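User: Here's a chain of 207 residues. Predict its fold as tokens.
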Amino acid sequence: MIRLQYALGAVAFALLLWQGIVWITGVPPFILPSPMRVAPAAIKNRLLIAENAIVTATEVFLGLIIGTVFGAITAVQLASSARLHRLVMPLLIFTQAVPVFALAPILTLWFGYGIASKVVMAVLIIYFPVTSAFYDGLTRVPAEVLDMAKTMGGTKRQIMRRIKIPHALRTLVPVCLMAVSQTAKIARFLKQPLITSIRKKRESYPA
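Assistant: Prediction complete.
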């Protein structure tokens, strides 16, 4: 109950601060509308907002599931083979040098303007963090636990399935929360006028 009161107080303070900044600076509404303008507009367009929120949530959810599954599988393979880790991990790190926002228009041209391009982008955002975090969790199991498992006759597959994977699962929660936030931003970006301009240019090209 106390936490709820703190949360409500923080929200109220943020709204008052927002409204105060608008009053003091006199910033135009098209740059920073006040809460008194946003609230009526949100109520008026609640059906449109809800419809788009469902679409975005679907894109994020599908990307989260696919990216997490592929990332976890990759991490298990990397943790099982030192040679594969030396070969693949540098390539994965190198791919992170490419800005995510730079790929968004390209993926839109490749996969179209529907849900596919957003899901692919979500998978790309989620895949590497999950792979890195899950691999880190798999390789940070306490040595005494692994020694005990080997002493009791546990095979590599059994140790991976019953000890390492459960130990690494806790690393997925913060990574997935971060990835969901980033994916939602990208999904919003893909709905911006930039993509509309790309569509017009593409349609203007001869077949």
